Amino acid sequence: MLERVLEFIGIEPARFRVRWVSGSEGPRFAEIITQMTEEIRALGPNRKLRDVV
Questions:
Q1: Where would I find the H helices in the chain?
Q2: pTM to 2 decimals?
């Protein structure tokens, strides 16, 4: 259902992730953010929102 809401408001579901990370898991947090940043950069600009702005 969340994916449908994201698509409706113009956010591609591939640009959204939910991960549970404890405050004591700094290296894991950094790894997740680095991986997500690389994946989003590979997707390029959000085509849906680009046409709105």
A1: 2-9, 26-43, 47-50
A2: 0.69
